[in-house]
Each structure stands twice: as structure tokens, then as C-alpha cells.
From TrEMBL:
Residues 56-95 form the Methyltransferase type domain. This is Methyltransferase type 11 domain-containing protein. InterPro entries: Methyltransf_11 (IPR013216), SAM-dependent_MTases_sf (IPR029063). It holds the Pfam family Methyltransf_11.
């Protein structure tokens, strides 16, 4: 499935919106989140997600992946530390006229442990769709998180981990390196505050092993990033959080300027921005 290009308030000034948490969450929901729809759909198809699935989405964002799973009949729970994104997820998953007045969705603002309810049936699928490498320390934090929440899943349940594909197959890699370059000065002062970096080849397998999970297949999915214009591209990429360390190390305007320059090679004649990418997913199983 190819993402639809989004027309998104091109005349607005970037700095105030990017600095505001609720505006950035909406930028994620309206622009960026849909870029990973092919990944969500590929995983759900691989695992035959449906009416018998009880899914826990870690880092669920504004709930698009949960909405797609719920559309297949799954019972979904999502958790994210970003309260603004969770509020948007609640809006998306609120029962509508065509839902018969109900939709079994639970959204939690907080940490993964907050989504574990001993009184509820165990999960049959856990997803961590946020690709590793976007923020410093996410690889190190993921293994213990998965080990803890896996106890709330049935034995043999699927756990999904994701990462960027090889840099040479991800046009966005060169753009994301702006985050690493600008964050370099802070990284020199404070260990572990860097931005985006490509995942190592076996990073997902190592995380699964560290969480006590058994690998059970993997795949690669094309997820092109397509934007209606340069403003939408900058907004969308800033909403990922991958540039937060760069903003802290320099300033918002500097990051926007260098990000715009890095995006110029990907601008097409009609003004749209298009970057082909490949993402990798690993299916692991709980013990």
C-alpha cells in the first residue's frame, strides 16, 4: 500500500507548532504515522490478525496501527508515554455509528507496565512498531521492556520488533543523519543523548534474545515517505522525535534549516517530497 500524500497547513510557521507538544502529536497523526501503514499491514497479514487476537501495542502513538488491527476484529490495547498522542488515539478508536455502539479498545498514557492488567485475558500479540534507532537508548531499553510485558502474554504469542532497513535502501537515511550530526556536540558532553542511527544487522535478534524470546521469522517491507510539500516533510520528520537531541544541541531554526537542505534532493517537479525506504520486522515468540 502506497502512502497518500497529505496537504497539511503549508503556510503555517514551523517553529511554534514544532515546539508545542499537542501540535507535534497532531503532525505525527496527520502526516507521519501513515508512512508505516505498509509495515503494519504486512505484519498483520503475516500473523493473520483477526477476531481472536488480543493485541498490546507498545509505543502506540496516535493509534493508527491499533485502528487497523481493530478493523480486522482484534481486541486492542495501546500504551504510549506521549499523552498528547494517546488522546488522539482515543479520538480515533472511539466507537462510531458503524461500530454498533462499541469498540473494545483500551488506551493507556504511561509506561508498558501500566498496560498490564492481571484481571484481563493474556495478550496473544505484542507489537513494538516504533523502529529502533530513532532515539538514544531505545535498543537498550526495549529488551527489558519486552521481557516484562511478555509475562502478560500467552505462551508462544508473537512479539513484533521493527527497525530501519539497510541505509543504502533507505533514502531517508541521509536526511536522518542530520539529527546525528547536529547532536554531536551534546553527545560529547552527555553520553547517550544522540539522535537517529541505523540499526545493526542483527540488532532485532539480539534484542529478542535479551528478552528471552525465540525468533520465528522476519521480513522486509517498502515504506516510502511521501509528503505534499517541503513544509509537510519537515513537520512530519520533526514529529518523530528523532531530531529532539539535535534541537537541544543547537536550536529549532537551525534544525529546520539543515533538514530542509537535506530534503532538497528528494523534491520532485510538482513540489512533492518522495523518499523510498525499506523497513525490517522480526517475529519472535514468548517462552
Amino acid at each position: 500500500m502506497t502512502p497518500t500524500l497529505v496537504r497539511h497547513r503549508p503556510q503555517l510557521d514551523l517553529a511554534p507548532a514544532a515546539a508545542d507538544a499537542s501540535a507535534r502529536a497532531r503532525d505525527w497523526a496527520e502526516i507521519q504515522e501513515r508512512m508505516l501503514v505498509p509495515l503494519y499491514e504486512a505484519v498483520y497479514g503475516h500473523l493473520d490478525v483477526g477476531a481472536g487476537t488480543r493485541l498490546l501495542g507498545l509505543g502506540c502513538g496516535s493509534g493508527l496501527a491499533l485502528l487497523l488491527a481493530a478493523g480486522r476484529g482484534a481486541q486492542v490495547t495501546g500504551v504510549d508515554s506521549d499523552h498528547a498522542r494517546v488522546e488522539l488515539a482515543r479520538e480515533r478508536l472511539r466507537p462510531g455509528p458503524g461500530d454498533g455502539g462499541r469498540r473494545d479498545a483500551r488506551l493507556v498514557a504511561g509506561g508498558p507496565a501500566d498496560a498490564v492488567d492481571p484481571a484481563s485475558p493474556p495478550y496473544t500479540l505484542i507489537t513494538a512498531f516504533h523502529p529502533i534507532g530513532c532515539t538514544a537508548g531505545d535498543e537498550e531499553e526495549l529488551a527489558p521492556t519486552l521481557a516484562a510485558v511478555s509475562a502478560a502474554a500467552e505462551r508462544g504469542s508473537a512479539v513484533v520488533l521493527t527497525a530501519w532497513g539497510p541505509p543504502e535502501r533507505c533514502a531517508t537515511s541521509a536526511v536522518m543523519r542530520v539529527a546525528a550530526k547536529l547532536a554531536e556536540r551534546m553527545r560529547a558532553r552527555r553520553r547517550g543523548t544522540g539522535g537517529w542511527r541505523p540499526a545493526q544487522r542483527d540488532a532485532l535478534e539480539e534484542i529478542a534474545a535479551g528478552a528471552g524470546l525465540r525468533p520465528d521469522g522476519s521480513g522486509r517491507v517498502a515504506c516510502p515517505f511521501g509528503y505534499a510539500d517541503m513544509t509537510s516533510a519537515v513537520r512530519g520528520l520533526l514529529s518523530t522525535g528523532a531530531f529532539d537531541a539535535a534541537v537541544a544541541a543547537t536550536d529549532q531554526r537551525q534544525v529546520e534549516k539543515e533538514l530542509t537542505e537535506a530534503l532538497h534532493p528528494h523534491v520532485r517537479r510538482d513540489g512533492t517530497v518522495w523518499m523510498p525506504n525499506v523497513f525490517r520486522y522480526l517475529i519472535a515468540r514468548t517462552a
